[in-house]
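input
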Amino acid sequence: MAGATFAFEAIDLSGVPTKGEIEADSKGQVAETLRQRGLVVLDVSEKSAPVNVEDILRRYKGVPMRDLAVFSRQFATLVASGMPMLRALSTLEAQTEDPEISEAVDSVRRDVEAGTSLAQAMERKPRVFDRLYRAMVRSGEQSGRLEEALDRTATQIEKMDTLRREVKSALMYPALVFLAAIGAMIGIVVFVVPVFIGIFEELAEENPSEKAELPAMTQVTVGVSHAFTDYWFIVFPAIAVLVYAFFRYRGTEHGKVVIDRLKLRIPFKIGDVVQKVALARWSRTFAGSVSAGVPILQAIQITGETSGNVVVEDAMQEVYESVKRGGSIAAPIARHDIFPPMVSNMVAVGEETGQLEEMLSKVADFYEAEVDAKVKALTSLVEPLLICFIGGVVGFIVISMYLPIFSIYEHIR
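output
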């Protein structure tokens, strides 16, 4: 994998200046290369890479979970085959399709070559290898079962990716329909309603003695139309600012707490799906970290931080304090509404029998199946609700536009 591009200034032994560019991994490597050429280095500076929109979008989207799972599975196979670590990393770097993973593997290989452990090298690339991933790798290194840890990690990522894809694919169609409907309604308000407004104004000019106020529904529609057509330079920036403010607020600690709690209370069974997705992710992550041999306190902490829901994270903080004092995992879980009684009972059984990993895996399997069924039911519920909403808004606009015409017709009769 090519390094960065550096610009250099140097002079040869006779004092003749020279400039140029060279690709290398560091400034030190550039200086060493130039010294080998018999040049005296005056200055070395890294050239900034041109802005690549595709690269920015790729980094914004993050690392594809499927590619990371494939990488982990291949890594486990190479380690199990007895291939030396540096050669295995070089092989993975060459055959990994995702550029960000390939870049991360290159960095890990160089750090391992310098003498650091695999988990420590991965800490420099947290965007690719999150805390859970690193903890499982560290546990595998310490126990001498790295291939098993990587294999479990791959299974964990594949399960999480499947769950996320199910939810996204089920909600994609309703979301597209909703956005298309919103666009169509804005088009009606901006282009169709003004035509009716022009007709109303012409009729009012032709019959000034019979001037009357427009119906309330018509006034609402006309007001919205005027806002979008006459004050678009205020309306659209205001909408953009509100969206930006919402995402900024969601990024704050208080915003995460408020929004995560609200998501669990969304009606029409949506909150129920959110809860089951959080439970499936929590149990799968917890089971994976326990099975990989991650110390229980660290596993609890990591599971809370990677749960994706602040409510679950708060509950796991209580679990952490309980276990730290010598208490159980099940007791604090039972005190939180987000965990149904079945979860706390199965965790309690797992603790008592020493089969916590198996019980958590069963909980994960159960809730992943529940999410699949609930998402399908939610999709069948959302579609008629969308139709009713869109029909209601369009009907409101149509009726509000025709009410004055009916009134004029009655007046003419």
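quick obs: Residues 167-413 form a domain with the Receptor-associated Protein fold (CATH 1.20.81.30).
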